[in-house]
Amino acid sequence: MADRLQELEVFVRVAERGNLSQVAREIGLSQPSVSRILNDLEARIGARLLARTSRKVVATEAGQVYLDQIRPLLAELGAAADTAAGNEELRGQLRVELSVTFAMRALIPRLPSLLAEHPNLSIELMMDDRRRSLVEEGADVAIRLGLLDNSSLMARKVGQTPRLLVTAPDYIARHGLPASPADLAHHQVIFGPSDSSGATLQGQIGPGAGFVLPESPRIRVSSSAGVTACVVAGLGVAFGSGWMFDTELNDGRLLRLLPEFPLPSIPIHALFPAGRQPSKRARGFADWLSKSLNSA
Question: What is the CATH number of domain 2-85?
Answer without folding.
Answer: 1.10.10.10
